[in-house]
Specification:
The chain is about 30% helix and about 15% strand. The chain is of the alpha/beta class. It has a single domain, classed as Alkaline Phosphatase, subunit A. The strands form 6 sheets. Strands 1, 4, 5, 8, 9, 12, 13 and 16 form an 8-stranded mixed β-sheet that branches. β2 and β3 form a beta hairpin. α2 crosses α8, α9 runs antiparallel to α11 and α11 runs parallel beside α12. The radius of gyration is 22 Å and the shape is globular.
C-alpha cells in the first residue's frame, strides 16, 4: 500500500488527516492491520533471517471465480452443442496438444508448460484459500493452515533483508475471499505476506505526499516521517518501536524493493510485451492487472520466494463466451510473456508458475449462456521449476464433467512445488499452535511423477 497519507478521512486522529488506522498500516505492508515495524518484531521473534542470494521461487496466479476448463484447456468438440460451447481448439507447438483458439501465444509455448486436466478435491467454496494453501479449509488446526508463501518464509527465511520472502499482489475486490493472497495460519504474523495493493487506488501509493518514484529520496522521506512521528508521539503509539521503525524505514527506502515495484525501470519493450489491462472491478471482483505478471517476475528476481496474484474474474453464470473473448486474450498475453521472460532470463529452472482457480464450471451451458460452479473437476497450468513440460496430465470424460484418468489432488501439486523448492514433504513438519508437528501436505501426497520423475 505504501501509505501513510491518503484522502483525508472524517474525524481524523491527527491534524494532517492521518487516522489511527492508517498509522497501523505505516510502512505499507497491509498485514491484517499491523504496522511494518510490528511485523519486523514478529519476524525477529519467528527467527526469519537472510538466507543468501541463491533461491528457488513460486509465482501463483489465481483465477478468481473458477475458470471454465472446457473452454480453455479441455475443449470437447464431440460433445453435444449445449456442452461444447462456442470456441474451437487450435494446435500447439507440441504435437497432439490443443488448447482454445483464444490462447494463440500460449499455443506457441506449449513445450514450456504442462496442463493438468484432472484437478479434483475442490471443496466448492468460492475463495482462494484452497489454491494458496493446498488444503481443504474444513477441519483446520487452531490458527488455520499457512499459505505456501508463509511456509517458505518459515523454512527458508528471507533471501535479502530488504525483500519480503512472501509478496501478495492481489488487489481488493468486492468478494474479498478472491483477493486473499494467503495467510500465515499457525505460523504467525511474522510469516504473513507483504501486500502492496490492498489500498485500492492511486492515492494509496502516497507516503505523506511522497509517491513511489520519490522513495529513493531518503532526505524527503525522513522529513515526511519526522513530521508524522512528532504527532504520533503525542499519542504514545510510537513507544517501544524505534528500533523496528528504523528497520522499517530502511526497507521502504531500499532501492532493491522500490526498483522491483517500479516497472518504469524495466525495458519498455518488455513492459509492452506484457500488455495493458483494466484496473476496475466488475461486480464483486476482477481487475485485469497485466502489470502484475511483470511485477511478479521482478520480485522473484529481486529475492521474493513466493508471489501470489489474482487476475480478472471468471465466475461467468451468464454470457460466459462474451466474457472469455475479452479475458482469454489478456491472460494469454500476460502469462505467455511471463513464461517467455523467465526462460530468456534463465529463471525457468528456479521459478515455478502455477495457474488455477477454486473449481471448474458445469459441462452444460445454462439458459443465460453461462456455466455454473463445478467442484468435481478443474484444471491447472504449471510452468518452469525445472519440471518436465510439454505434456497433458489427466483426462476428463466426453462432457468434461468427471476425471476419468489420473485425478490430481491439490496436495500433489503442492508436493511438486515443494520438491522444486528443495523441500521434502515426507520429512519436513512445522509445529502448530499446540506444538503438534504438521506435514506440509495432507494424506501423504507425493510430487507428481509426470513432472519430476
Amino acid at each position: 500500500m505504501l501509505k501513510i497519507l491518503g484522502p483525508k478521512p472524517a474525524n481524523s486522529g491527527f491534524c494532517d488527516g492521518v487516522s489511527r488506522r492508517d498509522f497501523l498500516r505505516i510502512g505499507a505492508l497491509g498485514l491484517g492491520g499491523l504496522a511494518l515495524p510490528q511485523v519486523l518484531q514478529a519476524e525477529a521473534a519467528a527467527g526469519i533471517r537472510s538466507a543468501g542470494n541463491q533461491h528457488k521461487a513460486v509465482i501463483m496466479i489465481f483465477l478468481p471465480g473458477g475458470p471454465s476448463h472446457q473452454d480453455m484447456f479441455d475443449l470437447k468438440m464431440d460433445a453435444p452443442a449445449e456442452v461444447r460451447g462456442e470456441f474451437k481448439p487450435i494446435p500447439t507447438n507440441v504435437p497432439g496438444i490443443q488448447i482454445c483458439e483464444h490462447l494463440p501465444r500460449l499455443a506457441r509455448l506449449a513445450d514450456k508448460y504442462s496442463i493438468v486436466r484432472s484437478i479434483v478435491g475442490c471443496n466448492g467454496d468460492h475463495y482462494a484459500a484452497q489454491c494458496v494453501t493446498g488444503r481443504d479449509t474444513r477441519n483446520m488446526p487452531s490458527g488455520g493452515w499457512p499459505a505456501l508463501g508463509s511456509v517458505l518464509s518459515k523454512i527458508h527465511g528471507a533471501v535479502d533483508p530488504s525483500i519480503p520472502p512472501f509478496v501478495g499482489l492481489a488487489p481488493k475486490m468486492g468478494h474479498e475471499e478472491w483477493s486473499e493472497n494467503g495467510r500465515p495460519g499457525f505460523l504467525g504474523v511474522g510469516h504473513a505476506p507483504f501486500q502492496p495493493n490492498k489500498g485500492g487506488g492511486s492515492e494509496d501509493m502516497v507516503l505523506k505526499g511522497l509517491t513511489l518514484d520519490r522513495l529513493s529520496d531518503r532526505r524527503s522521506l525522513l522529513t515526511s516521517i519526522d513530521t508524522f512521528r512528532r504527532e504520533a508521539d503525542s499519542t504514545g503509539m510510537m513507544d517501544g518501536l524505534d528500533a523496528f521503525n528504523q528497520q522499517a524505514f530502511g526497507i521502504l527506502t531500499s532501492s532493491k524493493l522500490a526498483d522491483a515495484l517500479d516497472l518504469r525501470k524495466e525495458d519498455p519493450k518488455i513492459v509492452e510485451s506484457y500488455g495493458k489491462g483494466d484496473p476496475r472491478n466488475r461486480d464483486d471482483g476482477g481487475p485485469k492487472l497485466m502489470e502484475h505478471f511483470l511485477a511478479a517476475r521482478r520480485l522473484v528476481e529481486a529475492g521474493a520466494r513466493c508471489v501470489t496474484l489474482a487476475f480478472s474474474r471468471w465466475d461467468h453464470h451468464g454470457d460466459n463466451f462474451g466474457a472469455l473473448r475479452q479475458d482469454l486474450p489478456l491472460l494469454d498475453q500476460g502469462l505467455s510473456a511471463l513464461i517467455q521472460d523467465l526462460h530468456e532470463r534463465g529463471l525457468d529452472k528456479d521459478v515455478s508458475v502455477v495457474v488455477w482457480g477454486e473449481f471448474g464450471r458445469t459441462p452444460t451451458i445454462n439458459k443465460d449462456g453461462g456455466r455454473d460452479h463445478w467442484p468435481r473437476v478443474s484444471c491447472a497450468l504449471l510452468a518452469g521449476g525445472g519440471m518436465k513440460h510439454g505434456q497433458i496430465i489427466g483426462a476428463t470424460d466426453r462432457l468434461g464433467g468427471e476425471a476419468v484418468e489420473r485425478p490430481v489432488q491439490f496436495g500433489e501439486v503442492f508436493a511438486t512445488l515443494y520438491q522444486g523448492l528443495g523441500i521434502d514433504v515426507n520429512k519436513v513438519t512445522l509445529p502448530d499452535f499446540n506444538g503438534r508437528p504438521q506435514f506440509l501436505v495432507d494424506n501423504g501426497y507425493q510430487p507428481m511423477r509426470e513432472l519430476v520423475g
